[in-house]
Design goal:
Chain lengths: 526, 854
């Protein structure tokens, strides 16, 4: 290297794609002819701020350099497919540490429910017949093992690995990692599903009678609790990007709930029959739902649109789980299949035939592991390329020491998000409340001797972004489509009027039993 | 001099004579002039000295003034006066008359202007630095920092010097200094001095204690007189000081005056003078015997008490809502607590003030009455009365003012509401237009529904010829709207209308027939009549048209081929239709009406084509119809085609073959169940729910009509149209929804009041557009989101100060450009492409020149 070269060190160029990933959209309008900021000094200041923002974007894009790990995957030889590899084959071919992660526990106490901590280090398992165990599953060090002498319906870790919640026969109990009962939550009655919202410190539960409840575990206060009126809540997951609960019901509807309103925020008709399982991608982009009619659908949950993909499988899928890298695991009976998403379809990746029917399933974060709870035990499967290889120590650290844990807990408490902010749009807080603002401006307009402010109310985010037009255009299109459809119907009817006029014979009405009539008859009766 | 006096006397005598006659003459002349009777005012002052500075008679101009040369004339050219005349002339030459000084304000103004200019120029030099500091992202105070730069090692070493030989020798010569420090003497003072000092200290202490005791004693004295005297003395002293100050230092005097005023005001503010005023004292005297005055006094005292009462905030209720049950209980107990309960809330105080005003009003009236009846008033009262009168009147005025204000505000609110309600209709033009669209959309549908009905009625008559039918359809389209209208008009509110305006084509037929069945005979008869009438009309028209068209047709036939014929045909039809389209104006939007006509035309032509095809090949039409029917399936618009995944089949673990059979059975059962519930109208139900939700979310029209207001009241009285128009606030019909184009998704769009509390609802200063403000807060600043460096940069405070360092104001040193070479940074030279090109060009040019020279 030449020492005489004084030129500033050239930094590595950042690809536009990466920049776009971290870019936060267009900045303040400071162009000479269109800016709305009059004061020159402030304009200068804002310009400097914009420069800092741009630099920040670049810096953040540069930090990707530090993400050294990359997830791998199975690659099949010629004439083979990855789906044919058995767990045993994989275990034989991987290093010993990875092989040690694949294990099976044969347990007695009924169907098992499992839950991993957010850093993927600890596992809690609860058997229907009262068996609860918490362990560091990597070292296989058992933290506690108890039998609560009641039926268990779900288990969930709280924000740290020293506390977990167990939904028992009547109430929800909180235990510490030594198995000591810390709390008994009698307001959560006959709970079937538990979810922990880590950033809000909320323990959410769905009950047999359809009650949803949110408990703030940091202050021990119930945020809200009400009847969702969807019947028994058997399917409930959280959307990690906005902390909204997705509840699937028997009518095929997935409804999204926040603790702030007793009505759902949104409802999606996903299937025509009971929703059997529901899983949301960790980035909050996709939602996978399955139904008893053997269909699996993938939805765009940000737009609340879809289905993006619709599949029919050969047996109804009972459990779904997304991994951090976007792999989707489906459990049907005792078969577990993992799918990878390629360009515009899902490709089968792994297949595993468990010994017993799978009753719960979760990908372990930051590990290439899929944990399954079955009727007779718990096992963890190696799914190469399923875990995020780079962990963020400030976010969740799998190798956390005790002091780090304490520190992280305090920090997390300081960064706690209030439950009022749970809504469909997670960045709503960064937006101006335009209606109230408009009202305020209107009020000032009525005041004499007060010059009304000239304010541009146009929001930064337009609603119909990327659609190539506003809702109006879409609507007119829709109207036109409908018009043309009606017209064709009319036209055809007129051409076929003699054939159409033949009378349909009145069918006998069986009331509710009509549904059991053959299809052709049914249409006529309707 | 004697000569001169004699001359003067002579002159005087002659002048006197002259002046007398002259004055007489003047008088006579002035007598002639009757217009001016009043003489101009003259000022004269008898003076002994003749001087230009003395007042002269006005009206006499400058030429009468005595000038120096007049006086000097007498000197003449005489030799002994020569010097004087010379001097005079010299002075005359030298003299430069100063211009008249400007008036003071003008002079001041000029001074100010010049001063301003200069200062401005002077201050300009700071501009650069100030703008730099203002726009700086962060400033570190003190701004002028000594450079922390460390010297390079070579520089540092340079400071040390090797000793020369001479120096070494000198050092050797010099005796080594003892490095022992001199011990400081512990007893620096002599005994006597110490004693003296002690005595001094004791004296001072004693004096201090005396003074303290005296002050204490004086403070303890209860005599008011004593204090008054003292205070007066003090005030006198202060006044004296003030006067002295006024002479010596007027600014300080002003400050002092301010201070004095302030102390007085503070004194008045204290509660000491609650009952020491003249009015209060007189009342006190009379209070012994008079009940009224006692009351008044008590009232006054209570006023004072109330006004000095501390406020208690009344927003407890919110806290209660937010808080737990426990604090609520505490609060309840607090309320019972008499000690805390004593504190009055704002509303109570308001109430009290109101009552106080009322009291003053009454009092005022009474006093007035008293004034009229009896004039027995003390001086105090005389003084006080006007004051009192003033006060309540002012209060009254303000009260009334407030009242009117509040009334106005209420009105305003109402109007504002109304405006707000109306506003969406104005602002959301697109939505209203959308509404139009939908209504337009509906109307063709209506016509269709009726059209169908009528076609059935008219099928026999019309179906014979194709073009005839086309016309008929067109006609029907237009006429049916009219007919619809006719039906609507007589029977508003009956079922028929609802039926005609509903959506579904098939259902309408049903409903129509049902209605015909259900409705009264008279109604159906009427309708039948109407329809019959319409039919006749239509048929007449058709006949008329037919004739026309057949004429056209024949003409066209003779002229052109069949293809071109069709086109012509279209046009002709269109011509014919246009006339009828005019009739529709009141019902339909014209633009879309035409569209509909066109559509119809197209459809009709298509229809014809289809029919032609049908004539040739019926099966083809069937196929086509089938395919189009498949297209109509709404599921196709929503669903994408499901793919089949070849998954593994789970095996039931329970056991052997017989169980397998069972599972098959189970599968079958499941299939049956699934088939049974497959079309269980979940979709329909959901859509209905969505529709309901949409309806619920739509704001409803607000009816502000007051029944019987300005009209007859009672049962079965219709609200007039005017009233409907005026008092029913209409809401925009089709507000855009987020789930509009999303298919089977309902998004409940109630605005979340909880998140609104956290959202910004007012733009901070430099921003006047929402977009800009939102852009300014777009970047996350936490260290979880951005790199550490950027995080630090983003959260850097705009001003940093170092603790314990004196921040001195800027001085002019900052303006001086320091050209220390060390601070200069290396600026890399970058050659732009253009510059490069230029350079290359010049080089080339030079080369070419050289070549040319060669």
């Amino acid at each position: 290297m030449e020492t005489t070269d004084y030129r500033p060190r050239k930094r590595v160029r950042i690809s536009k794609k990466k920049l776009a990933k971290y870019n936060k959209g267009e900045g303040i309008d400071l162009r000479e002819n269109s800016t709305r900021i009059k004061n020159e000094v402030i304009k200068q200041k804002l310009k400097k701020k914009e420069v800092v923002f741009n630099k920040t974007v670049k810096d953040t894009a540069r930090t990707e350099l530090l993400l050294t790990g990359d997830y791998g995957c199975l690659e099949a030889d010629c004439g083979e497919v990855t789906i044919q590899y058995k767990q045993k084959q994989i275990v034989d071919n991987v290093d010993i540490t990875a092989a040690a992660k694949c294990f099976t526990l044969n347990l007695e106490f009924g169907p098992y429910y499992i839950n991993y901590t957010r850093n993927g280090r600890h596992l809690v398992l609860g058997g229907r017949k009262g068996h609860v165990a918490a362990l560091d599953w990597v070292t296989k060090k058992l933290a506690c093992e108890i039998n609560v002498m009641e039926s268990i319906h779900d288990v969930s870790w709280l924000h740290i690995e020293t506390m977990f919640a167990v939904a028992q026969k009547d109430w929800v109990f909180i235990y510490d990692n030594q198995g000591i009962e810390l709390h008994c939550l009698k307001q959560m009655y006959k709970v079937t599903r538990l979810e922990f919202l880590p950033y809000h410190f909320l323990l959410a539960s769905g009950s047999k009678e359809g009650y949803l409840a949110w408990l703030d575990v940091s202050i021990g206060k119930f945020v809200n609790s009400f009847n969702s009126k969807v019947g028994k809540i058997a399917v409930m997951t959280q959307n990690p990007s906005n902390a909204v609960l997705c509840v699937g019901d028997t009518k095929g509807v997935v409804s999204m709930w926040s603790p702030n309103s007793k009505d759902p925020l949104a409802k999606m008709l996903c299937h025509t029959q009971t929703v059997a399982a529901c899983a949301v991608h960790p980035y909050g982009t996709y939602m996978a739902t399955s139904c008893l009619d053997r269909s699996v659908k993938i939805w765009d949950i940000r737009q609340l649109a879809g289905p993006m993909h619709s599949y029919y499988v050969r047996a109804p899928v009972q459990h779904l789980s997304y991994s951090q890298t976007g792999q989707l695991a489906m459990a049907m009976g005792n078969v577990v299949e993992v799918y990878r998403s390629s360009t515009d379809e899902m490709k089968p990746y792994m297949r595993h035939r468990a010994d017993w029917t799978v009753t719960s399933m979760q990908f372990c974060p930051y590990e290439d592991i899929l944990g399954i709870g079955s009727t007779r035990g718990v096992s963890s499967l190696l799914i190469p390329g399923s875990g995020e290889p780079n962990f963020d120590g400030l976010e969740s650290n799998p190798f956390q020491t005790k002091s780090q844990r304490c520190e992280a807990e305090v920090k997390a408490l300081l960064d706690k998000i209030q439950p009022e902010l749970i809504c469909l749009d997670p960045v709503a807080i960064a937006e101006v409340d335009t209606p109230t603002f408009k009202n305020k401006i209107e009020a000032t307009k009525n005041l004499l001797y007060l010059k009304p402010k000239n304010i541009d109310f146009k929001p930064r985010r337009t609603k119909a972004k990327g659609k190539g037009g506003t809702a109006k255009v879409v609507k007119t299109k829709k109207i036109l489509k409908e018009l043309s459809r009606k017209e064709t119907i009319d036209m055809l009817r007129q051409t076929d009027s003699p054939s159409d006029t033949r009378k349909t014979e009145p069918q006998k009405n069986y009331g509710i039993l009509n549904r059991f009539l053959p299809k052709s008859n049914k249409k006529a009766t309707r | 001099m004697v000569m001169s006096t004699g001359y003067l006397e002579e002159l005087d005598d002659t002048e006197k004579d002259v002046s007398e006659s002259h004055s007489k003459l003047l008088e006579a002349v002035s007598q002639l002039d009757k217009g001016r009777r009043v003489k101009k005012a003259e000022r004269s002052e008898p003076t002994l000295e003749v001087s230009e500075f003395h007042l002269v008679k006005s009206g006499i101009c400058d030429r009468d003034a005595v000038h120096v040369h007049d006086l000097a004339k007498t000197l003449g050219q005489k030799s002994h006066h020569h010097e004087i005349t010379k001097n005079l002339q010299a002075i005359k030459r030298k003299i430069q008359v100063l211009p008249k000084p400007l008036e003071k304000p003008a002079a001041d103004r000029i001074k100010r202007i010049v001063g301003f200019k200069n200062t401005k120029q002077e201050l300009k030099k700071w501009n650069a630095i100030i703008t730099r500091n203002r726009t700086a992202e962060s400033l570190h105070f003190p701004l002028k920092q000594s450079s922390i730069k460390l010297d390079s090692s070579t520089e540092f070493v340079k400071r040390f010097r090797l000793q020369s030989d001479l120096e070494k020798e000198l050092a050797a010569l010099e005796p080594q200094k003892d490095n022992i420090e001199e011990k400081s003497d512990e007893f620096s003072l002599t005994l006597k001095e110490i004693i003296m000092k002690r005595k001094e200290a004791a004296r001072i202490r004693a004096q201090q204690s005396y003074r303290e005791a005296k002050a204490h004693r004086q403070n303890k004295i209860k005599s008011k007189k004593f204090h008054r005297v003292q205070r007066k003395e003090k005030i006198k002293l202060q006044l004296k000081e003030f006067e002295e100050l006024q002479k010596t230092n007027p600014e300080a005097a002003l400050e002092k005056l301010d201070q004095l005023d302030k102390t007085r005001a503070e004194e008045r503010m204290t509660l000491r003078h609650k009952n020491t005023g003249k009015w209060a004292k007189s009342k006190q005297i009379r209070a012994k015997y008079d009940k009224e005055t006692r009351k008044e006094l008590a009232q006054q005292l209570s006023v004072g008490r109330e006004l000095t009462q501390k406020f208690k905030k009344s927003n407890d209720s919110e806290e209660e809502d937010v808080g737990d049950d426990m604090p609520m209980q505490f609060l309840a107990s607090d309320k019972e607590n008499p000690w805390i309960g004593n504190v009055k809330t704002e509303s109570e105080i308001d109430e009290f003030v109101k009552s106080y005003r009322k009291y003053w009003d009454d009092q005022n009236k009474k006093l007035e009455g008293q004034n009229i009846n009896s004039k027995i008033t003390t001086e105090n009262k005389k003084i006080n009365n006007p004051l009192k009168d003033m006060q309540p009147s002012i209060l009254n005025g303000t009260d009334a003012h407030v009242n009117t204000n509040s009334f106005e505000i209420q009105n305003n609110e109402k109007i504002q509401e109304a405006i707000n309600l109306n506003k969406p209709t104005i602002s959301l033009m697109d939505s209203s237009s959308r509404g139009n669209n939908t209504t337009n959309n509906r109307q063709p549908l209506e016509t269709k529904s009726c059209k169908e009905y009528l076609t059935k009625a008219n099928v026999k008559s019309v179906k014979n010829k194709s073009y005839k039918k086309i016309i008929k359809n067109d006609m029907l389209d237009n006429n049916l709207i009219q007919s619809n209208k006719k039906i609507k008009l007589p029977k508003i509110g009956t079922n028929n209308v609802i039926a005609t305006s509903s959506w579904n084509v098939e259902s309408i037929e049903n409903i129509n027939t049902e209605n015909f069945k259900n409705s009264n005979v008279s109604n159906s008869e009427k309708i039948n009549k109407l329809f019959d009438f319409m039919e006749e009309k239509i048929q007449d028209r058709i006949k008329f048209k037919l004739e026309r068209i057949t004429q056209n047709y024949e003409e066209i036939k003779t002229n052109k081929k069949r293809k071109s014929k069709n086109i012509e045909f279209k046009d002709d039809n269109f011509d014919g239709l246009e006339i009828q389209a005019k009739k529709q104006k009141p019902i339909l939007d014209l633009g879309l009406n035409e569209n509909a006509c066109k559509n119809n035309l197209e459809v009709n032509t298509e229809l014809e084509k289809i029919k032609q095809i049908k004539q040739h090949n019926t099966s083809f039409v069937d196929n086509r119809s089938n395919t189009s029917k498949v297209e109509i399936d709404p599921n196709k618009y929503i669903n994408i085609k499901p793919k089949h995944l070849n998954t593994d089949l789970p095996i039931d673990i329970t056991g052997g073959d017989d169980v397998l059979d069972d599972s098959e059975d189970e599968e079958e059962r499941r299939n049956i169940v699934s088939e049974a519930f497959a079309d269980d109208d979940v979709v329909e139900e959901f859509r209905k729910e969505k529709e309901e939700e949409v309806k619920k979310a739509q704001p409803k029209d607000i009816d502000l009509t007051l029944p019987g207001w300005g009209n007859w009241g009672g049962k079965n009285i219709k609200v007039s149209k005017r009233k409907k128009r005026r008092f029913i606030l209409k809401m925009p019909k089709d507000l855009p929804r987020r789930d509009e184009n999303k298919g089977d998704v309902i998004i409940f769009e109630e605005d979340n009041p909880k998140i609104k509390e956290h959202q910004v609802n007012e733009l901070p200063y430099p921003f006047s557009s929402v977009k800009d403000y939102e852009a300014s807060i777009r970047m996350p600043i936490g260290r979880n989101f951005v790199s550490e460096n950027s995080h630090r940069k983003l959260i850097e405070p705009s001003v940093k100060t170092h603790m314990g360092k004196v921040i001195e104001p800027m001085n002019e040193d900052i303006l001086v450009k320091k050209n220390d070479k060390e601070n200069r940074k290396f600026i890399p030279r970058r050659i732009n492409k253009e510059q490069k090109m230029k350079r290359i060009k010049t080089i080339k040019r030079i080369k070419t020149n050289k070549q040319a020279i060669k």
